[in-house]
Amino acid sequence: MAILNSFALLPASPPSKSTPLSLFTLGVVMSLSTGLANVSLKYNSVGFYQMAKIAVTPSIVLAEFIWYKKKVTFSKVVALTVVSIGVAIATVTDLQFSLFGACVAVAWIIPSAVNKILWSNMQQQENWTALSLMWKTTPITLLFLVSMIPFLDPPGVLAFHWSFNNTSAILVSAFLGFLLQWSGALALGATSAISHVVLGQFKTCVILLGSCYLFGSNPGTISIIGAFIAIAGMSFFTYLNLRDKKQQPQPGLQVSSALPKSKLSEGNGEIRDGFGTETV
């Protein structure tokens, strides 16, 4: 992003109402979300990590209700429940964890949910673009990630063997991580925090089924059934979102109230709208 900024390729920050405190909060939450997730994978099994990941969905629903009084319809609750059950069946094969790892996983759920909510709201309500918001918050995130290394991952970077191959792999991974963060931010700005979580779970199911189809891996019949159950719930959730979007009133069609009333209509106790219809 610094390279893009040096060539003036980064979009300018919008004249929004974002305060330095809100940007600082988002940067700190991002560092906690990323750092705790990696530490959770270090001390817990993948199955336990997936269980904690599933818990992010109800956490987002609860947080948005507390902060923004945003309610989720019963149909969407059913769809999200089916998705969570399907992902659990597909991915949770073992639940090995340590006490420290379990505490880290539980502590990761809240900042992960808050991170998605803040990203989505700042882009949609304050007109931030994905890259400009990343440019403002990444230095803060980097600072707090470095400060957490001695406490969560000692001795961390100092004990790593920095060979040419390892360094090249890390740089490639970092570039792919940038693309992943960018695409995730674009998705959060275009949809919502809950939809972003569902999208991530869809990716998990696609990886599981794709590895089975393309590379002949055998995750087990139960896991495959769980993946299809989750995809069915995701399809239903997507259908509900699209239906709600179509049912929202279109501002461009509500022009009758702004049109002047006909004198003849007013005299007869009638009002004509701009499309020639009459109401008494």
UniProtKB/TrEMBL annotation:
Segments crossing the lipid bilayer: 21-41, 47-67, 99-119, 140-162, 168-190, 197-216, 222-242
GO cellular component terms, semicolon-separated: membrane
Top-rank taxon: Eukaryota
A Pfam family matched in the record: TPT
Protein's membrane topology: Multi-pass membrane protein
Keywords tagged on the record: Membrane, Transmembrane, Transmembrane helix
Alphabetized InterPro entries for the sequence: EmrE-like (IPR037185), Sugar_P_trans_dom (IPR004853), TPT_transporter (IPR050186)
Compartment list: Membrane
PANTHER family named among the record's database cross-references: SOLUTE CARRIER FAMILY 35
Name the record gives this protein: Sugar phosphate transporter domain-containing protein
Species annotation: Gossypium barbadense (Sea Island cotton)
Lineage, opening ranks: Eukaryota, Viridiplantae, Streptophyta, Embryophyta, Tracheophyta
